[in-house]
Design goal:
Layout: E1 3-5, E2 14-20, E3 32-34, E4 38-47, E5 50-64, E6 71-86, E7 106-108, E8 112-114, H1 116-126, H2 164-171
Parallel strand pairs: 6-7
Antiparallel strand pairs: 1-8, 2-4, 3-5, 4-5, 5-6
Length: 173
């Protein structure tokens, strides 16, 4: 867990550069595997109660193409520009509307900034939702499973079901 006491952040800012093991961050992304540590390069700057965090997070993830199921390596280079604010006092139970500009902020408690949530959330949001090996991936044949990027198959294309009534009519003549 990467914790930075606010008292250790000088006025000119605190540059941080470290690697984080994906297993320690509990990165549960379906269909994605992290093969290398996550490289974090940030600068923390104090501005009154707010702590601004700017920099980059870099890693690579392997995913399956959603069309042809081949494995692909996706490099992630995530720009970070956010801020940490003092934790809000606990609210009574119920629903509350969060202002849209506060949705991108993070919070700290006990004068300690914990960077794990920032790294975890930024990486999870950067992993492609529907990864494709290439933009023009042709996928798999729905009948025989042949990878259509490698070659064509001998399967006849399935008949269009919208013409089924006409086909039945013509068979009767």
């Amino acid at each position: 867990m990467t914790q930075i006491p606010i008292a250790e952040i000088p006025d000119e800012g605190l540059p941080l550069s470290y690697s984080e093991d994906p297993a320690e961050l509990d990165l549960a992304v379906p269909g994605a595997r992290f093969l290398q540590p996550i490289a974090v390069d940030l600068i923390l700057v104090k501005a009154a109660q707010a702590i601004s965090a700017t920099g980059r997070i870099k890693t690579s993830v392997t995913c399956e193409c959603v069309r042809c199921l081949s494995r692909l390596l996706v490099p992630l280079d995530i720009p970070v520009a956010t801020q940490f604010l003092p934790a809000l006092p606990p609210l009574p139970p119920g629903e509350y509307r969060m202002p849209p500009d506060a949705a991108e902020d993070y919070y700290y408690q006990d004068d300690v900034v914990v960077l794990d949530d920032l790294v975890r959330q930024e990486v999870i949001l950067a992993v492609p939702f529907r990864p494709q090996c290439r933009g023009d991936c042709r996928g798999l044949c729905p009948q025989c499973g042949q990878d259509l990027n490698v070659g064509t198959c001998a399967c006849a294309p399935p008949p269009d079901p919208r013409w089924a009534v006409l086909r039945e009519y013509l068979k009767g003549k």
